[in-house]
Amino acid sequence: MKPVRVGICGLGTVGGGTFNVLTRNADDIARRAGRPIVIEQVGHRSIHPDCDITGINATTDVFEVATNPNVDVLVELIGGYDMARELVLTAIEHGKHVVTANKALIAVHGNEIFKAAHEKGVIVAFEAAVAGGIPVIKSLREGLGANRIEWVAGIINGTGNYILTHMRDEGRAFEDVLAEAQALGYAESDPTFDVEGIDAAHKLTILASIAYGVPLQFEKAFTEGISRITAEDVEQADNLGYIIKHLGISKRTDQGLELRVHPTLIPKERLLANVHGVKNAIAIMGDAVGPTLYYGAGAGAEPTASAVVADILDVARDIATDHHYRVPYLAFSGIDEDVSQLPIMPMEEITTAYYLRLLAVDRPGVLARVATILSEQGISIEALIQKEATEGELVPIILMTHRTKERQMNEAIREIEAMADIAGPVTRIRVESLGEGE
Ligand SMILES: NC(=O)C1=CN([C@@H]2O[C@H](COP(=O)(O)OP(=O)(O)OC[C@H]3O[C@@H](n4cnc5c(N)ncnc54)[C@H](O)[C@@H]3O)[C@@H](O)[C@H]2O)C=CC1
Ligand SMILES: N[C@@H](CC=O)C(=O)O
Ligand code: NA
């Protein structure tokens, strides 16, 4: 059987891992694909130290790979938006299938890329783009194909979860743990993508499109990062029976779709609260199957390579199939005709419970005024902790509220922050108590 010839662009963490897994497991992969998969060419600027490319046709110009007539599948592992877009569109234009781990590329340029690929009859596969090695795209697109998806919620950034876990368990500083995650190859080249939730929003955008059959709409995702979470918040959440996790949440509601990434208090006994380190987990609720959970390594060289190589394998199997009958990119068939126009809801319309932390001057009447502001917005308090004054005259107040609209909470926070007796911004962390099973 004719081999499938692969061109790998980028030999960093994931590119190096992909090269090594493809080489090491070549025999098993060939048996699964029904034909050998060979590395025809690599395009790189630098080579990961774990990767030995002796004897391989190599170039420093990745566009040479995209136009090489001997390459059947271009594997894009250079990252970023613009150059990656140009590279992938060039490869498609030259009739090549594409495998990518690049969530930024798919979330922002996916609609354009899928259209180009559809017109050319080639495959674009991107399992590694969401939750690294966890086969969540395959599960959602194929395994759950019978279901109306109600919601998707998960820890979908390994770096962020690694930071929160080590800050909580070892009391270490944010920057220190971030540097470690970078050294381990987990972080994006710009780590603010990880800590500010942009990377998770890219991934959530992709998951939501597959779950509900809507176009990719990254620009409508609400994104809040973990950089303002303090050791005090972690401790107070713990006292109240919660763990803080950085979640991506997308729900179907009567008003449209929620699409949001933010730190979230989760009751300690929930499965998602017990996902630690670089591990990711995604809970998905289908109307027929009920809740399901997908867990594993969300980042790292070989876990991510596992998904990249599985996609190459799928391409090898699908190559002989009429492209109209292949699994569609976003699970719903066709490019335009089966796409739903369900709107993405503005964040102000979302209803959730809240944890609030404020620093107040230790003076009678302050707490009563805060309670009045909340009550005027129709917000009721579920629990309140007022600590001893520890910072001069300032005393931390922790509040847990019942569920309310984000709009009401925004207004209440504006008024509380305007009080002369309140110092600095109010910390707000949303609380999520999804259903059973996650
Ligand atoms: N590191 C991880 O755990 C995961 C990364 N990803 C994604 O995989 C992609 C690659 O990420 P990493 O391997 O971590 O990054 P990396 O920075 O380790 O590797 C990227 C490599 O591409 C090379 N490169 C960049 N532009 C190039 C160009 N124009 N020509 C030739 N080479 C070029 C760089 O020299 C570097 O060696 C990104 O899209 C990332 O978001 C996805 C899942 C997990
Ligand atoms: N930087 C990302 C890599 C995988 O997608 C993460 O930490 O999750
Ligand atoms: Na995946």
UniProtKB/TrEMBL annotation:
PROSITE patterns: ACT (PS51671), HOMOSER_DHGENASE (PS01042). The keyword NADP applies. Keywords: Amino-acid biosynthesis, Methionine biosynthesis, NADP, Oxidoreductase, Threonine biosynthesis. Residues 355-431 form the ACT domain. Pfam families: ACT (PF01842), Homoserine_dh (PF00742), NAD_binding_3 (PF03447). It catalyses: L-homoserine + NAD(+) = L-aspartate 4-semialdehyde + NADH + H(+). InterPro entries: ACT-like_dom_sf (IPR045865), ACT_dom (IPR002912), Asp/hSer_DH_NAD-bd (IPR005106), HDH (IPR016204), HDH_cat (IPR001342), HDH_CS (IPR019811), NAD(P)-bd_dom_sf (IPR036291). The keyword Chloroplast does not apply. It comes from the Bacteria. Its EC number is 1.1.1.3. Pathway: Amino-acid biosynthesis; L-methionine biosynthesis via de novo pathway; L-homoserine from L-aspartate: step 3/3; Amino-acid biosynthesis; L-threonine biosynthesis; L-threonine from L-aspartate: step 3/5. Belongs to the homoserine dehydrogenase family. PANTHER family: HOMOSERINE DEHYDROGENASE. This is Homoserine dehydrogenase.
